[in-house]
Specification:
two-stranded parallel ribbon, globular, 3-stranded antiparallel beta sheet, binds protoporphyrin IX containing FE, single chain
Length: about 425
């Protein structure tokens, strides 16, 4: 098998986008455009094996117009199923129905009424009604405090020309960016723009993270896998120097993710909108209130960005998905015929015992990740209340959520980078060593 096949081969039978071999050219928008060629949506919106025309619904979608506009011409089955917990969206579908789809779906995932995901969703719907209102949400408070901290430490660092203060501002920026991600999945709100002080873009991430990584986790179509290649290759395929280079490269990737993605954004300038530049408000404030030259202001801002990038990317890439026992495309899957999407999500995740339970840690380190993937529109501070329900349904289906420590996740990430042989057996969700304690 050549290097080319390595990148294109999916053990789930998923046909990747044409531009899969060229990570720089594979922007979120190219990814969306090329989904049109594989999804059999015939220029409309596909849900399961039916085609719909939501054109007249774009401006009425309660989650915001972005989601509908971006996904025209694609299969939105996984997005539609996972982003709505109430029955209302499903009940509206008939109004927009056009015709049956001709082509087979590009994904093996199913959502049968008696399957794992829909059963869990029914139970979660009930559990959400029992959570007392006063218990949530703490996320808004923590996010606002971090935003204020970022401003204060950034301004003080430039005012007093102090690298320590800049590093503190950088750490806050990294954590605030993770927290901002909590809002990107949901209907648009001002807090989602906290994410943009990193120079990363909400709209791009709604594609690369929400519509790609979240729905097709660790597969050849997961943009978060594609975008870090060839520097970091998490798929179990033949790699340069058997992956040793990846391990050395990892900290550099962490350090410059914010800046490199921003520069790539400038290359694809046609998708830039005025709001894309909102992150520049931070250096502008630093320049106005800091009394330093433009050059010195930019220098400290670069320190803040690099530290922030390091914190955000190191947390993100070592949070929950990369471990030799977690499913990566190429590994033997649980099923190819009828693979419940929720089970696939459990196969592709491993949560961390030392993060779960703390609202602040969960918000700032992509915690309670399995539940977050299964129900991405729920505020992070709600997730801890849903473990008993998850446990009840996993027991019913004789599967478990696997847990490890944060250190286990970091170590697992490096082991996965070195891994060149796919797992010959499907993921084992009953493996005693990882069970929730
Ligand atoms: C790409 C596909 C879609 C995505 C990613 C998406 C995403 C979302 C999001 C993020 C929300 C807000 C949830 C919240 O913050 O609580 C929402 C709400 C909603 N969406 Fe969508 N949506 C999609 C397609 C649709 C379609 C096709 C319909 C109906 C024809 C629909 C109907 C609704 C309704 C009624 C709500 C209100 C909340 C609820 O009842 O669940 N959505 N959606």
């Amino acid at each position: 098998m050549g290097a080319k096949d390595n990148f294109l081969n999916s053990s789930l039978g998923i046909v990747p986008p044409r531009t899969r071999l060229n990570p720089i050219a594979l922007t979120p928008y190219v990814w969306l455009e090329e989904r049109g060629e594989t999804d059999g949506a015939e220029g409309l919106w596909r849900i399961h094996d039916k085609l719909y025309d939501f054109t007249s619904f774009i401006n009425y979608h309660p989650g915001g117009s972005d989601w509908i506009v971006l996904t025209k011409g694609t299969d939105i089955t996984e997005a539609f199923e996972s982003h709505h917990i109430s029955h209302a969206p499903e009940e509206m579908l008939q109004k927009y129905y056009i015709k049956p789809a001709q082509a087979k779906r590009n994904f093996p995932f199913t959502f049968h009424e008696d399957g794992f995901y829909r059963t869990l969703k029914r139970e979660i719907r009930k559990s959400l009604k029992t959570i007392p209102k006063e218990l949530y949400p703490t996320s808004d408070m923590y996010s606002d405090i971090m935003f204020t901290g970022l401003l204060i430490f950034s301004l003080l660092s430039v005012r007093y020309w102090n690298y320590v203060l800049a590093v503190i501002a950088g750490v806050i920026l990294g954590l605030l960016t993770v927290a901002g991600h909590n809002y990107i999945h949901r209907k648009s709100s001002f807090r989602m723009f906290y994410f943009q002080f990193s120079l990363l873009q909400v709209r791009d991430w709604r594609v690369s993270h929400v519509l790609s990584h979240h729905l097709y986790t660790n597969t050849v179509i997961d943009l978060e896998i594609c975008m870090v290649e060839p520097f970091l290759n998490f798929l179990p395929i033949k790699k340069i120097f058997h992956g040793y280079l990846s391990v050395v490269m990892a900290p550099f990737v962490w350090l410059f993710t914010f800046q490199v993605l921003f520069l790539l954004r400038l290359v694809n300038y046609k998708t830039i909108k005025p709001i894309s530049l909102s992150g520049l408000l931070l250096p502008i404030c630093m320049y106005i209130f800091g009394t330093q030259s433009l050059f010195h202001t930019l220098l400290l801002w670069e320190v803040i960005l690099s530290v922030g990038s390091f914190v955000f990317t190191a947390i993100g890439l070592n949070a929950a998905h990369h471990h030799p026992d977690v499913f990566h495309d190429g590994d033997t899957p649980r099923s190819l015929e009828s693979y419940d999407w929720g089970l696939n999500q459990l196969d592709a995740v491993m949560d961390r015992t030392d993060i779960t339970g703390s609202d602040f840690l969960v918000l700032t380190s992509f915690g309670d990740h399995a539940l977050h993937h299964l129900f991405p529109t729920l505020d992070h501070s709600l997730l801890k209340h849903l473990y008993p329900t998850l446990e009840m349904v996993t027991k019913q289906f004789d599967v478990h959520l696997r847990m490890t420590s944060q250190w286990g996740a970091i170590l697992g990430g490096f082991q996965q980078l070195m891994k060149i042989k796919p797992n010959p057996f499907p993921p084992d969700l009953n493996n005693k060593k990882y069970l929730l304690r």
